[in-house]
Design a protein that fits this description.
The protein has 566 residues and is an alpha+beta fold. The chain has 17 helices and 20 strands. It has a seven-stranded antiparallel β-sheet with strand order 17-16-15-14-20-19-18. Keywords: Membrane, Transmembrane, Transmembrane helix.
């Protein structure tokens, strides 16, 4: 993901979802439907623009799910009053604790235009400003803003290729085996920006999946008048034309969805601290969207998948012959690599042996060597008659087999280089993850303390307990911990939290703790209590060293004694 340019965030809010004439296309029967809300960054991009956009923005490779509604049951006119966050949006919320404060200057505009009941059934999603390779006017970066890439520039929202996509889907059991999309409603981002702060609201026709059209729906029908006394009196019959006397065709009932969509671009504030938070939030959201797109692209293959999977599938057909050929090839490669210093110790020993053989052939007559070879079997048989000599030969044979020197094939070299490169890449990834984590903790979380420690876990069924590794931090008046640093980096939900309100802070070890804990762990144990998810709660932690214990205790004392609203 290209992070060389700062991409301000915009807030997209979707709500007030209702349906009308939602029926199956085959039988025309009402069913149980729900709506999946997506953001497609490249819906209105052609093939060339889509390829160029994928080169500069990895996140544009797929549509990102914002959330989905809960089906109200079997009906042709559903009202979706409950919207659940998607996994991607949940991760973003976990990684951005202050996302409401960061985007507050955009959120209040969308919230102000929606009623109280509608606001409950709405969902918000931050999206980064689109980028392009076209060179625009250079913008002087401030001290807190990253330097602008000379190849990339921000694309105005009015020229965005993105769109909000509402997919109407079935919820039947068999729909998981088939395409369960009834149709889509597409609203371009450029249209939302052109509408100003009013947003877009109304009925829209549900079209085929993959459409780029946005067709408004019909207005609600007026109440039908009483039947004409001159007619046949059948309320279900069609009205007759007064001029021609012929019956008119019934109106076509298109499936339609009512939606209200608001979009507010972020306006950069003058406060430097807020700018740092905005920059870091933009990075986190872009990385999460890029990770989602990469995951969907890697898992979006067919049953065969790729040529490599095809080879792995059919390789067992000729496994025996392949193994024999591989054995012969390995012998040839081992002979070649024995002389080209692939393994220096083997090559040196081999050259020394050849030099010794040359010296022997140069000094000892050949007939004596041939005689010694001929007498080898006789001498060996006499030598093996003695048990001591037999034991000596066996010991020498075992020592030879256990010798560390062995021939090396190309496959051995490839595996060595592969695992060495993988270990080096893993070390670099850990360094990069640590740098990103520190940046998030400093600019977004604004933690007073963070680090790894162990938390005491009690088994509810038995009286046993154990230490479990965890990653914890103190943010404001909260003590939060995760299973590991990786769970924090990927935006997983926290294992628990304590709120320093009322009677909270540090506590001493109880007599039970002194009896259960090992003597060597007691100097590094820190007990913290506060308001947990189930009332007053106490957490016993084991710091990695004395310095970490002191800093943790100081942070807890500061957080619990600081001014707060109890």
């Amino acid at each position: 993901m290209n992070q060389s340019i700062y991409r301000p965030l915009g807030l997209l809010r979707v709500g007030d979802l209702r349906g009308r004439n939602i029926r199956s296309r085959d039988l025309g029967l009402p069913g149980s439907f729900y709506v999946s809300i997506l953001y497609d960054p490249a819906r209105y991009a052609d093939a060339r623009a889509s390829s160029e956009l994928a080169n500069v923005d990895v996140s544009s490779g797929c549509a990102h799910e914002i959330g989905s509604t809960v089906s109200p049951g079997i009906t042709a006119s559903p009202e979706w009053n409950s919207i659940e966050d998607s996994a991607e949006l949940t991760h973003v919320k976990h990684m951005l604790p202050n996302i409401t404060d960061i985007l507050d200057h955009t959120r209040h505009e969308a919230a102000g235009s929606m009623g109280g009941s509608e606001r409950k059934s709405s969902i918000g999603y931050p999206i980064p400003t689109p980028i392009t390779e076209r060179i625009r006017e250079a913008v002087v970066a401030s001290d807190n803003e990253p330097a602008t890439n000379t190849r990339l520039s921000l694309l105005p929202w009015e020229e965005s290729h993105g769109a909000v996509v509402l997919q109407v889907k079935y919820t039947e059991v068999l729909s998981s085996f088939f395409d369960n999309v009834l149709g889509e409603v597409v609203i371009p981002i450029a249209k939302l920006v052109g509408s100003g702060n009013k947003g877009v609201e109304g009925w829209f026709r549900v079209l085929e999946a993959g459409t780029k059209d946005c067709i408004p729906g019909d207005e609600p029908e007026s109440p039908r008048s009483a039947p004409d006394p001159a007619g046949d009196g059948d309320a279900g019959s069609y009205q007759r034309s007064s001029s021609s006397g012929k019956g008119t065709a019934p109106p076509i009932e298109h499936p339609q969805v009512h939606v209200r969509v608001n979009f507010s671009p972020t306006v950069i504030a003058g406060d430097s601290a807020l700018q740092k938070s905005d920059i870091e939030a933009s990075k986190v959201i872009c990385e999460e969207m890029a990770r989602t797109a990469s995951g969907k692209q890697s898992s979006g293959g067919s049953v065969i998948g790729s040529s490599l999977n095809t080879i792995n599938t059919v390789r067992t057909l000729g496994g025996n012959l392949q193994n024999q050929l591989a054995f012969v090839v390995d012998l040839v490669e081992q002979g070649r690599n024995a002389f080209n210093f692939s393994s220096p110790q083997i090559t040196i020993v081999l050259f020394v042996c050849l030099l010794a053989l040359w010296s022997i052939l140069a000094t000892i007559p050949t007939r004596i060597i041939v005689l010694a070879v001929g007498l080898r079997n006789i001498l060996l048989e006499v030598f093996l008659q003695a048990e001591a000599d037999v034991s000596y030969v066996k010991t020498s044979f075992k020592f030879t087999r256990a010798h560390p020197f062995r021939a090396i094939a190309d496959e051995d070299l490839r595996r060595t280089y592969f695992w060495e490169a993988k270990r080096e890449g893993e070390r670099e990834r850990k360094k990069l993850a640590a740098a990103k984590r520190e940046s998030r903790l400093e600019k977004l979380w604004k933690t007073q303390w963070h680090g790894t420690l162990k938390i005491k876990r009690n088994d509810p069924d038995t009286s046993l307990w154990r230490w479990e590794s965890a990653f914890a931090l103190i943010e404001g008046h909260r003590f939060i911990w995760w299973k590991s640093e990786k769970h924090f980096d990927t935006g997983e939900a926290s294992e628990g939290s304590l709120f320093f309100a009322g009677h909270a802070g540090l506590s001493g070890l109880s007599p039970l703790d002194l009896r259960e804990l090992p003597t060597g762990d007691i100097p590094s144990v820190v007990s913290i209590f506060g308001r947990g998810q189930q009332g007053q709660q106490k957490v016993t932690c084991l710091a990695p060293d004395h310095t970490a214990k002191q800093t943790l205790e100081n942070a807890v004392i500061f957080a619990s004694s600081d001014t707060k609203a109890d």
